[in-house]
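Sanity check

After download, print the first record. It should look like this:
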Amino acid sequence: MTDNLAPEAHLDWLQQQGFDEKQAPHLKWLSKDMNEHDSYMTDFMTVFQTLERWGPGSDADSLKALSLLPITSEKIIDIGCGKGFSTTLLAQQTKAQIVAVDNEQSALNQLGGRLSQQQLEQRVTLTCASMIDLPFTSSSFDLIWSEGSAYIMGVEQALKQWQSLLKSGGCLVISDLVWLTETPTPAASEFWQQEYPDMQNIATRLAQMQKAGFELIEHYTLSEQAWLAYYQPLKIRIAELKPTMPISAAIADLEREIEFYEQYFGEFGCQMFVLKKGL
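Expected structure tokens:
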């Protein structure tokens, strides 16, 4: 059962259910019907292939984190960049050399096209690799950026493993799904125990970050607009596809997720943490 999982075992659990690491980022908020895995994933990717955002986020929330950094970064890595909203923003707002890492080549291809259109491709290197086995040496970067992806390998494991990539005094910007209440309703608690068994409150995450050798600069909850930027296009996409996919289990799960979000949002949220590596 998922409630017996160690925090770092989330990816292992997903793989046991039949999903691979490439699929994991799209499954954070979904129940999983494994009886017809291939058709489920085909339907799921049909929904998401045209969507820009694959999770909550907004430029305003990302820019706030960037403004809080006490350093001027020269070498940045964006881990789990997806289609590269954060990568593009970092390229626009800094003069740094940036490495964008994701294990989904199609997402990197789309990012490459966006960067070319804005003439930013010269400062960004696209790398298709697993966040669990990054092909970089210690002290390679002065800033690590990772929005909404560290949960895949476990936040504690990510903090421990990625810390060595930072130069002394380097910074880490990371976001994660958290509880915003100490007394969630039973339905919300049960839902997230199934979907994200390592979900923690903010205080627990802060303690883990300190234990991993990071100093807190600031943390804040992503805006409601960050969630609407994800859910509103998703609802429209589902409405478009449902007439031709009336018995799709993937669409049924997505509808369930949207209903859950609309009913219980506020008990949970995404928290952005801006951290500095201790000297």
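If your output differs, re-run the checksum step. Summary of this record's structure: Strands lie at 75-79, 97-102, 124-128, 141-147, 166-179, 200-201, 214-221, 268-277.
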